[in-house]
Amino acid sequence: MHVLLIDNKSAHLVRLKKLTRQKLGEVKFRLRDPRAMTAEDVEWAELVIISGGTGRSIEKNPLTFRKMVDKLVKAGRPTIGICLGAEAIAVYFGSTLRDIGVRRVGNVRIHFAPGVLIGGRQSLMAYEFHRWAISEVHEPLIRHGYSKDGIEVFQHSALPIWGLQFHPEVRRKDNGGHILFAYVLASFGFTTT
Fold first, then answer.
1. How does strand 123-134 pair with strand 97-112?
2. What is the pLDDT of residues 99-108, one digit of tens each?
C-alpha cells in the first residue's frame, strides 16, 4: 500500500509509521512537508495521513494548511488527520480552534456520540499532546467523539476524510487510540490486522 505521510515535524512520526504498518501490513511511505506536497504525491497515494506537529500551528500557517487540505479534498483520497492534521481539516471546513492555554499531555477519555460504538465501546482513553481544541464541527463534518476540551473524532459526510484530535500512535497504559485508527482504516475498506 502507498501511504503519503504529511510530516508536520511530529515527535511521534516513528510510532505513526509503526502503527500504520501494524494495521495495514506492507506499506511504502512517501514523506512530505505540507509546503512541498504536490498533486502527484496525492495521486500516488492510496491513503494520506497528516501527522501532528511540533512548533507549527494553523494560526501561524493558515495558507499552507488551507492549500494542503484543498489538494486532498479535490483528489478524494482516503485521509486521516491526526492532531494538527485534524485541526487543519476542521478549520478548512469552517470550524474554529480554541487555545486551551496549556499543553495537554497524557491520556484523555473520549466519549462517542449517541448511537456510536467503536470496538464495542461508548468511550475509550487516548493520548493527547496539544494546546488547541476543536470547539465544534459543522456540515459537512460529523462529530463522532468528544472530550472535556472539544471535538476529538469527526468524519466528512461525503468524502473519505477523518480527523482524530489525539495521537493513536502513542500507547500509554491501557489507552485505545489504536482501536479508533483501525476503525477508520476499515471504514475506508482497508483490511486491517
1. antiparallel
2. 988 888 889 9
Per DSSP bridges, beta strands 161-164 and 151-156 are: antiparallel
Predicted confidence band at 118 (pLDDT cuts at 50, 70, 90)? Answer: confident
| Cα 88 from Cα 7, distance rounded (Å) | 13
Helices (H) and strands (E) in the chain, counts: 5, 9
Can you give the pTM of this predicted structure? 0.95
For 20, the grid coordinates are 500504520
**Separation CA 129–CA 100 (nearest Å):** 12
The fold of the 2-187 domain, in CATH, is Rossmann fold (3.40.50)
In whole angstroms, how large is the CA radius of gyration of the chain? Answer: 15
